[in-house]
Amino acid sequence: MDTPERNQIGTTAAPKFEDSPVFNYINNLSPIQPVKSIHTAQTFNSLSFSSLPSVFTSPHTSSYKESRFLRRRCYSDLSKPDFSSENGNKGVTGNVDELQVNSSAPDDKSESSTKLSSEPQALKSHSSRPDCDRPLPDSDDRAVSDPCVENNSGSGSSEAEGNRLVVSQTEEKEGTSYDWESLITEGADILIFSSPNGSEAIRLVQKPSSTLAQMMENDDANLSRMRIADPIESSGGQHEIEFSSSRAGEGCELKDMDQAIDDGISFPISSDSMSREITDEEVARYIADDCMPVSNLHRGMRRRCLDFEAVVSRRKNMEDGSNGCSVSTHPEEKTTSMDKQLVPYKSGGVVTRYVLTGIGLHLNALATTSKDAKNLNHERFSSERQLNLPNSGGSCHSSSTGLDPLSTSIVTEQDMDPSGSGVQSEEDAAMASAYVLADDFNQNSPKRKRRRLEHAGETELSCKRCNCKKSKCLKLYCECFAAGVYCIEPCSCQDCFNKPIHEDTVLATRKQIESRNPLAFAPKVIRNSDSLPEPGDESNKTPASARHKRGCNCKKSNCLKRYCECYQGGVGCSISCRCEGCKNAFGRKDGSSLLGLETELEEEETEANQMSVMDKALQGPEIQNNEEQNPGSAIPSTPLQLPRQLVPLPFSARSNPLRSSFLNVGSSSGFYAGYKHEKPNTAPVSDDAIPNILRGDGSPGAGVKTDSPNSMRISPPQSDFGLSPLPRTGRKLILQSIPSFPSLTPQH
DNA sequence: GAGTTTGAAACT
DNA sequence: CAGTTTCAAACTC
Fold first, then answer.
1. Which nucleotide C1' is nearest A558 CA?
2. pLDDT, tens digit, 9 for 90 and up, residues A372-405
C-alpha cells in the first residue's frame, strides 16, 4: 500500500488547515504540500478512491484539489471524467494513466509504483496501479478488481465506499478485528451515509475513530464545506483531509496495511504489525482501504467496454509499458475526459474492459441485463457469499445494485459499485466471472462459450453475448460492438474482430460508422431521470420518461416484443416511431400512457414469462425502482440489471442525487453524449427528442445540471439501467462532465 | 437445437 | 431519401 498516491494524498490532506478552501487552494497550487504527508495519504487512498463524485465539480475546488485528484483519480476514474471538464486535465490524465496501468500490467507496476511514491505524479499513477495490480494476481481478484473498478466507477465510489466499509467490517470480523467491532457497530451508520454520497461515506469512516472525530471535528466542518463547494471532489478530498490530519504521525505502517490488503484485504492482518498504534483512525483507514478493494471487486467486474478513444491512449500507455500508469499526469490527457471514461481493465489479462460513458441506454445492454439479471442474481449471491467478495463472485455482484437480503454486505458493495455505471459494474462483474470461469475457454469453441453463457454467463448478466457470424462483430448488428464493448468468451461470434487485439480495427470501424451516423453508438434509449423530470424536456413527459433514440419501425410485432427496440428498451413509443399497430406497453406512440402499462405488462407477462416482464419492468423506469429494492423474486431484483439498466438521465441524477440517475451509458453512450456536445445534433436522427435529450437532458437548460456537456459522462455504462436509480444504494450517477469533446469520435 | 420471424443496419 | 439486402436477435417449435 505504499502507493504513492496515498502518500500524496496524505500529504495534501495532512494540513487540516486545508479546511479553509483558500488554504486548500493554495496547497494545490504548491506541489510541495503533497509531499508533506505521505503517510497519511495511504489511509485515504481508499477513501480517495471512493471519492468519485466529480460531477458537481466546482471549479474552485477542483483547482485546488487537482493535485490530490490526480492521485485519487487513479483510483476512481469515473469520477474523474467529471472533473475533466473543469479540472479536468490533471484528473483526467490521472485516470488515463490508471487505466493504462491496469490494462497493461498490474503486477509489476504496483511495486514500482510504490517506489515512485516519492514523486507525486508517479505516485498517482502508481497508486492506481498498485491496487489494480494486487488484485489481479489471484483470488484476490477483489482487491485487484477493486482498484481498477474504483477507477472506473468513479462517481459511485463514494457510496460504494460506504458499502464497502460495511462489508469490510464484516469480513474483518470474521478474520480478526480489534477495533472493528466498534467500527462495525458504526458501520450501519456508515452504510446509511455512504449511500447518498461518497463524501458521507467518508464521514462515517471517520466517525469510527473517536480520536479522529475529535481531531477532525473542525476539519469535518471544513470537509463538509469542501463537499458542498466541490461535490465532485468532495469524497476524495474530504477523506484525504480528514485522514491526513488524523494520521499525521503515523505513516509507516501503511505497508503493513497494504500487505494485509493484498492478502485478503482484511486489515486485521496489518494490525498485527501495526499493533495498537493502529488506533481507530487506522482502523478507519483500513476500512476505507478495504472498502476500496471491495468496491474494486465490483468494478473489477466491469465489462469489457470499449472505449475507442481511450483505447488509443491506452495503447500508447500499454505500449510504453505497463506503465500506463506512469504518470499520465500530462495535462493534455487530463483534458480529455474521454480517457477517463475508458477504463481499460484487465482481469487476468484476459480482457481489457473499457467503460464507456454515455447517456442513455443501449438496448443491448438492457436486454442482456434483463435476461441475465435473473440468473445472475442467484448465482451471484451464491458466489458472492462464498467468496465473500472475491473476485469473480464479487465481480458479478457488483453489478447487482439491488439489495440482497442475503448478503447485505455484499449488496452494499454492489451498490458501491455503482460508481457510476451500474451497468458497467454488472458487465464487468460478468466479465470477470466469465474470465474466471473460462480462463480456459477464451474464445474457443463456441460450445464452451455457450456453456459459459448459460452458466457463468448467467452470472455475468451484463455481458452481452453476441452470436455474430458474418459481421465480424464490427457492425452495429453486433450487440457487443454496438454497446461499445469487446466480445468476450461468452460470445458465440465467429471471426470476431471486436477484441482488444484488434483495437485498431475496431476503432477504425467505429469511426466509420460514426462518420456515417454520429449517433450510431449513442444509447438507443435515452432516459430522463425519473426523479427529475425536467420541465423542458418532452422526453420526460413521455410516459417512460425515456425514449428511443430513433424510434422503432415495427410492423408486425405491435411493439409488444423485443423486436421492438422501444419495447426492449423499456420505453414507450414516441412520435418519432414509425411503428404500425403500436401497442407498446410502455407507452404507445399515439400517446397512450404508461398508466396502462402495468396492466398491459401483466398481460404480457402471462404470455411471456414473468421474468421477461420483470426485465421489461426493469428497463422501464417505473418498475425498476421498486424491484430493485425488492431483491426478491427472480426478477430482479436483479440488482445487476438495475444498475445497468436504466440510464437515468445524467442530469436528472444531478438534480436528484438520491435517485441518482445513473447515466448509464451504454457503453458508447458516453461518447455519444460527448459527441453530441461537440456536434450538436448533427445526428442524423430525426428524433426531436433525442438530440434534446442527449444534450439535455441535460442540457439545455438546466443550468445546474449541467450537464455540462461534459457532464454527459456517466459513470458508466453501463447504461443500462437507468431507470431507477439505484434503490438505496443510490448510486448516484454522476454525470461526469465530459470534456467538451466527444468521446470516441473526437479523433475524427 | 434448429428453424422462423422480425426489424435494425447496411447497402444500393 | 427510398427501396432492398443483410444481419443477428428474438422468438417458436
1. B6
2. 433 434 433 333 333 333 333 333 333 333 333 3
Alpha carbon distance A184, A179 (integer Å): 8
Q: How confident is the model at residue A24 (pLDDT cuts 50, 70, 90)?
A: low
**Shortest CA to C1' contact from A370: nucleotide:** C10
Find where cell 474504483 sits.
Answer: A150
Q: Say if CB A293 and CB A161 are below 8 A apart.
A: no
8 A C-beta contact, residue A723 and residue A621: yes
Q: Which residue has the cell 486545508?
A: A18
- State the cell numbers at A617: 419492468
Q: Which residue has the higher pLDDT, A639 or A527?
A: A527
Which nucleotide C1' is nearest A520 CA? Answer: B9
Q: What is the largest CA-CA distance in chain A?
A: 72
Query: Which of A86, A568, A94 minimizes the C-alpha distance to A366?
Result: A568
Residue A364 CB lies within 7 Å of the nucleic strand B = no
Q: Is the CB of A367 under 7 A from strand B?
A: no
Write out which nucleotides of chain C lie closer than 7 A to a protein Cβ.
6-12
CB A367 within 7 Å, strand C = yes
Residue A658 pLDDT > 70: no
Q: A526: Cβ–Cβ under 8 A, 6 or more apart, which residues? A: A359, A360, A361, A539, A546, A547, A548, A549, A647, A649, A689, A690, A693, A694, A697
- Rounded to the nearest 10°, the torsion over CA A240, A246, A250, A254 is -40
DSSP A735: P
Euclidean distance between CA atoms A648 and A166, whole angstroms: 27
A552 touches strand B (CB under 7 A): yes
User: Is the C-beta of residue A470 closer than 7 Å to nucleic acid chain C?
Assistant: yes
Q: Is the CB of A446 under 7 A from strand B?
A: no
Judged by C1' against the alpha carbon of A478, the nearest nucleotide is C8
Q: Which of A272, A269, A260, A344 is nearest to A309 (CA)?
A: A344
pLDDT value of position A479: 87
The answer to whether the beta carbon of residue A515 comes closer than 7 angstroms to any atom of strand B is: no
Q: Cβ(A183)–Cβ(A208) under 8 Å?
A: yes
Is nucleic acid strand C under 7 Å from A562's C-beta? Answer: yes
The Cα–Cα gap between A318 and A372 comes to: 33
Helix (H) / strand (E) containing A251: none
Residue A54, C-alpha cell as written in the block: 466529480
